Amino acid sequence: MSTSTTPVIVEVAINGGTFPDRNPHVPLTAEAIQRDVFALLDAGASMIHSHTYDINLQGQAAADAYLEAWRPILEQRPDTVWYPTLSVDQSEGASGESIEGRFAHYPIIAGEVPMQIGIVDPGPVNLGYPDEDGIPMGFTYINTYADIRYAFEVCEKNGFAPSLAIYEPGFLQTVLAYRRAGRLPRGAMVKFYFGGEWGMFAKGHGVTFGLPPKESALRAYLDMIEGTDLPWSVSVWGGDLLQTPVARMALELGGHLHVGIEDHYDPDRTPTNMEIFEETKALCEEVGRPIATAAQTREILGLPDPQG
């Protein structure tokens, strides 16, 4: 099958750390999450990533918040490919709670509803925004080697396919080390997070992270995974993926797309998740790649049918 006709996974990250002051259309309540997710699934979205209204919740409290939103969705659409985020303290200067606490809600959710994907953030990164003088301020999102090992073990133990967020090239080096050691769990997908000019928090432009959303940057990542056959996607945090060259380039080279209100920022517009998805769908059609169904997404990732 040629690249031009290979199904493309379009993952929609519907909320994340975005709040109404940044985009008034962000779905945060259970009802709003359900409304957006059902609409996106009906429109053909391949995968959904979701947060709760409070990322600081842990354990049973976090699980309850996710289940309130997601149980009705999965009762009607049990084939949905989706995953929650980790519990992380994002207060000023914080680096996160214990690794056990960050994952405590995962097995609880998976014991109640279909859930096949987990998260591994394979490295530390500085995340911030400019102060009044344009100087970077913020915090360090810490993921030690021990934390990373624990995250992979959670995926192995529970049969979760790891969603591998690549904020920096060093993150990918760690993933490749696990692959060489034969310890990369089934279904792993690397997701290249490019730093847009407004950064992770969109509190001002000029302070960001990682590589910029340029063709040369994507080429560098692809050189690193050459010969691995790892599925990969691209996203831009603090910008608009579709307004950069990496979106079309990814489609033309066989990659996948990660879009949605979580990472999108444009000071001149605040689109809905559906508007972002429809714009993404139009680009896929222009390039000539159909959007993967849930079944095709599981086939690409090598995941079993949750109903069979």
TrEMBL record:
Pfam families: BKACE. GO terms for molecular function: 3-keto-5-aminohexanoate cleavage activity; metal ion binding. Its cofactor is Zn(2+). InterPro entries: Aldolase_TIM, BKACE. Keywords: Metal-binding, Transferase, Zinc. This is Uncharacterized protein (DUF849 family). It comes from Ornithinimicrobium humiphilum.
